[in-house]
Amino acid sequence: MANTDFRTCSLSGLKIHRSSELLIRWNLIAAFATLAVGGLMGLLVLLTRWPSVHLLPVEHYYRFLTAHGLDALLAWIIFFEIALVHFTSAVLLGTRSYVTWLGWVAFALMLIGGALINTIVVLGRADVMFTSYVPLKADPLYYLGVILFAVGALIGFIHFFINIVLSKRDGGFKRSLPLGSFGLAAASIIGILTLAHGAAIFLPTLLWSMDVIPTIDPSAYRLVFWGLGHSSQQINVCAMVAVWYMTSAFVVGGKPVNEKLSRTAFVLYILFINLASEHHLLVDPVLSSWHKVVNTSYMMHLAVLASMIHAFAIPASMEVALRKQGYTRGLFEWLKKAPWGNPAFSGVIISIVLFGFLGGITGVIFGTEQFAIIRHNTFAITGHFHGTVVAGTTIAFMAFTYLLIPFIFKRELIWKGFASIQPWLYGAGVATLSIGMMSAGSFGVPRRHYDITFSGAPFSFTFDPAIDMFMSMMGVGGVLAAAGGFLFILIAFGSIIFGKKMEQR
Ligand code: HEM
Ligand SMILES: [Cu+2]
């Protein structure tokens, strides 16, 4: 391959090959597009759950809830992660993308699968929500769409390993991978295991929907489904943490204080995070209490430990780097003088704080055997995971987008002033949304429920009046988040199309 196919990014110094550049670009474009659809669906669902608005009719509520979960959690996040796969397994190592065609096969499968899922859901043939618990049944094409998307993603994660093996052969890195790539290696290992569970559950479910298999045991479904559904959240955690480290490195020149420790923490994720999948089965009668308590009160903390290590290591890496730049007065000058106007930096800090305090803490609490029984299927759970996958992962990915647009698309950001407030707007919105949901849930408000006033029901039930305030908090926060999300989409697409071209060798 001719050397002219490489260019050197003048901002980051990265050596970027045309083959990876195109793969990253298209995966990012697909990610932004699916986030736009998913976010719009989220807004419509929100305006339905907010009792004083109650926008959609009942069947549309479940239909759009299904689309929201799939576009936001499956499509946006995984398209972005596959972009990160190519970024960390080729660009960060200064090598080309090997087997580029395989990257395009993965992308095409994900695109076709995603389009199929959305079409079938919009046609009203798959009102089964994200989890598609049997015996809820969707059109076979829906399961086929999920399988195509998952196989595409699987190939994408496998591409990571092909790239790093061949890159090592060609001298892309010496002894160990840079930390960002190491994090994505952890994500890809978990990704491959996870997607194998996906195949194990969605293939039989496809056959069942085609009447080839007579029944699927609901407990078996839940067990295997969460091997996919929960473990894939750990792909997200690994990718998010890798983004935290990389942003610290790119924006302030931060290096982990003890790199071995940070690497070990990623290994803890690989080894122990799968155990946490069991929190989805805590109220099911299948497993024994002994098993549940040992798993959720003891073993799970080995994975929590990993997050605690990262939560200290990353801010520490920033502090050390900023102090080296001369911000040494007092305890906190480095913090005051940090580049808060850079949305990549502020976004990552917001992501770290909200992920830890909203998503992490509630996950550890709700995920214990003792607590699960009173929070299960309440709105508190929805509050918890908007603290993790939205306030944590989505904000981190948004922040990293502000770096990738100049690095990969060679465009300047448009609307820099708006860009610098976008993470704050989105972060404040999601935090309010999430706290509103958690508070309402602690008064027993259910998730996935069309009408909590139970109008027309044979028995009347009213919740504590306090929930009015919490549901409004959710509503106002959600609208702010939707505004922040919309701003992000405008800035991302606007910069790609209209941003000032940057001259580079
Ligand atoms: C504008 C931002 C967002 C708003 C206003 C929003 C709002 C909501 C609301 C109101 C629900 C319905 C809960 C229920 O009725 O049970 C929901 C569910 C959900 N949201 Fe979001 N959300 C947003 C962004 C996101 C993002 C970015 C993700 C993923 C990364 C996400 C993932 C989910 C999932 C997985 C569900 C559960 C779907 C199900 O129960 O099948 N949300 N969201
Ligand atoms: Cu889970």
Short description:
It is built from 15 helices and two strands.
Structural class: mainly alpha
Please give the order of strands in the largest beta sheet.
1-2
* Radius of gyration from the alpha-carbon trace, in angstroms: 22 Å
Q: What do the pLDDT scores average to?
A: 95
Describe the main β-sheet briefly: 2 strands, antiparallel
Helicity range: over 70%
Percentage of residues in DSSP E strands:
under 5%
Total number of β-strand segments?
A: 2
Bound molecules: protoporphyrin IX containing FE, copper (II) ion
Unreliable parts = none
Quick one: overall form?
globular
Task: State the helix count.
Answer: 15
The H-and-E topology, N to C, reads as: EEHHHHHHHHHHHHHHH
Distance between the termini: 17 Å
Structure description:
There is one protein chain. The protein is mostly helical. Among the domains are: 139 residues; 164 residues. 71% of the residues lie in helices and 1% in strands. A two-stranded antiparallel ribbon has the order 1-2. The longest helix has 36 residues. The protein is globular. The two termini are 17 Å apart. The model has no long low-confidence stretch (mean pLDDT 95). The site of copper (II) ion (CU) has 4 residues, from loops.
Features:
mainly alpha, two-stranded antiparallel sheet, 15 helices, binds protoporphyrin IX containing FE, binds copper (II) ion
